[in-house]
Amino acid sequence: MSYLGHVWVHLRKDLQLEWRSRDSINGMLFFSLLVVVVFSLAFDPTAAMSRQIAGGILWVALLFASITALNQAWTREQRNRVLEAQRMAPSPASALFLGKALANLLFVAIVEAVLAPLFIVFYNLHALGQGWLFALVMPLGTWALVCNGTFFAALGLRTRNRELLLPLILFPISIPALLGMMQATTGILTGEFDPGLWIRLLVAYNVAFTTVCLLLFETVLNAE
Amino acid sequence: MKFSWIFNGTLEAHHLAASYLAVWLIQGGYAAWIGWHWMHTKRPSSAAEPGLFTSEDDS
Amino acid sequence: MKRSRILGPVGFVWFVATVGIIAYATRLALFVAPTEATMGNVQRIFYYHVPTSMLSLLFPYVNFAASLCYLYWRRRDPLKALTADAVAISSAEVTVVYSSICLLTGMLWGRAAWGIWWTWDARLTSMLLLWLLYVSYLMLRKLSSTGQTHTLAAVLSVFAAIDVPIVYMSIQWWRTQHPAPVFGGGADSGIDPSMKPAFWFNVLGWAMWGIFILLLRYGLERRRQESEQDAALQAIEASLEIAQ
Q1: Is the dihedral of CA A109, A112, A114, A120 positive or negative?
Q2: For chain C, N or C: smaller number of CB within 10 Å?
Q3: Hey, is the C-beta of A173 within 8 angstroms of any chain C C-beta?
Q4: Range C228-241 average pLDDT
């Protein structure tokens, strides 16, 4: 089977498992909604101010929501010693990682698709800049979070405080990407500056870290 | 008398003194921490030599 | 053992020299260097703050190199890999110590000289992020299960090393786009020649101290590792005796 064939098998497995329970997606959706409401209470923005802060709030909400999903991204593999089987299987380890990361990307994308109209409603938003750029920023930003998140969730597989460890190591590494996605979103919404620089940063970040994740996943899987 | 600046001194003097003291405390404290742990780690016997488990043992 | 016969005296001489140089440099900084025109005496914090900041940017590279060596030797030569790992954790801890001092002295200086404890300018934010990255490295080492710690930490170190330049660039762009007050003058403010001796002696002294403390921590880590090897060997031998 080709490499992409392996990736597809892993991806399909995760999508099927998630579809049966829909735990992750429901949890993420509700969590993001709650975060949005809490931030609105905290800042109570006017229309002009909401364009300045909506970008930041959106990505903070998505960040926290993805953490809740990523925390149990690998628990499926731990039940019934599936992980040992994965290690012994002839498929390349990075295919397992890629399949799972793509599945997570899809889940977070579904959450975004629901969240975006809510944002527009809650903050009375309309983009003053080039709105079509969102089609670039959203996937790039989401992939930056999900790729590193899936990798670090695997790092924490056998640690004591797994749920605590993931945000502790994910957030510092992700800060340039977070800055990029928040600034790009704010740039598009306010139209005050060109988001191009930040989009280029996101592309560079994604290329660099996707490569590193793919190369180092086998080491992490066989860490003992 | 010489230390009246501690109580009557300016903010600048306090911060200057605090900075230098903080550096000595942090660096010295870290060194002391290492020293304390050195004392409380069992001394490895000389039997544990680096050459013990190399692949040259396999014939 | 052969190596400790020269190591002890050399280490002691180095330590004495380091403390001597730091004492001399401190004297220069506090009493000999001229008082700065605008800020007054509080500017003397600069002589500890800036050398420490410069040095805190070097130790991460040591950590990165050691982590790469660990990953390379992990399967090929496990004993060499252990020494690389000992260097990795030592340099990470020293990085955190030095960057903590940089942040703390910077805040004390900022409050006294400019009235604010903090500002999100390029340099401070980048330094804070460096601190966060290496604290997260130490947390991973603490929380991960034994047996895996070395490998996982080495992997995280690779991520951190790749992240550092990206962080630096992105924060620069952020602050170019949204300027904020800058601590300590712009990038082109140079050092007056009369201040140079105090400055450079502090750089030398704290660099020597950094090397000393790194090697001390490395020695502690090796001592711990060998102690564990001893215990493991004894456990194996005990189980072999029972089997007979």
Answers
A1: negative
A2: C
A3: yes
A4: 89
- List the domain range (segments joined by +) for residue B18: 1-31
Could you tell me if residue B6 is inside a domain?
Answer: yes
Which two structure tokens, joined as six digits, stand for C216?
Answer: 């001390």
pLDDT at A10 over 70: yes
Distance CA A168, CA C177 (A): 28
Beta-carbon contacts of residue A194 (< 8 Å; ≥ 6 apart):
A187
The sign one gets for the Cα dihedral C38, C42, C44, C47 is negative
Mean pLDDT of A136-154: 94
Total structural domains within chain B? 1
- Of residues A50 and C81, which shows the higher confidence score? C81
Is the pLDDT at B58 greater than 50? The verdict is no
Residue C124 has pLDDT above 60, yes or no: yes
- Asked if C143 contacts A163 with a C-beta cutoff of 8 angstroms, the reply is no
From C221's Cα to the closest Cα of chain A, the distance in A is 20
CB-CB under 8 Å, A169 with C136: yes
Residue spans per domain, chain A: 3-221
| pLDDT of the residue at C187 | 44
Dihedral sign computed on CA atoms, order C237, C238, C243, C244: positive
Q: Can you state the angle between helices C196-243 and C2-27, rounded to 10 degrees?
A: 150
Note whether residue B10 is domain-resident.
Answer: yes
Q: pLDDT digit string (tens) for C86-123?
A: 999 999 999 999 999 999 999 998 888 888 888 888 88
Q: Does B47 reside within a domain?
A: no
Q: How many CA atoms lie within 13 A of A222 on its CB side?
A: 14
Instruction: In whole angstroms, give the CA distance from residue A208 to residue C162.
Output: 8
CA distance C226 to A113: 55
Please check whether residue B55 lies inside any domain of the structure. Answer: no
Please indicate whether, in this complex, the C-beta atoms of C140 and A176 are within 8 angstroms of each other: no
Q: Which of C221, C220, C217 is closest to C209 using CA atoms? A: C217
Q: Return the residue matching tokens 């605008």.
A: C38
Question: Residue C108: which H helix or E strand, with range?
Answer: helix C78-114
Owner of token pair 């942040």: C103
Collapsed DSSP state (helix, strand, coil) of residue C40: strand
CB contact under 8 A, B20 and C40: no
What average pLDDT does the structure give for chain C?
Answer: 87
For C232, other C-beta atoms within 10 Å of its C-beta total 11
pTM of the model: 0.87
Per residue in A13-35, pLDDT (tens digit) is: 888 888 888 777 888 888 888 88
Q: CA A144 to CA C87: how far, in whole Å?
A: 31
Does residue B38 have a pLDDT over 90?
yes
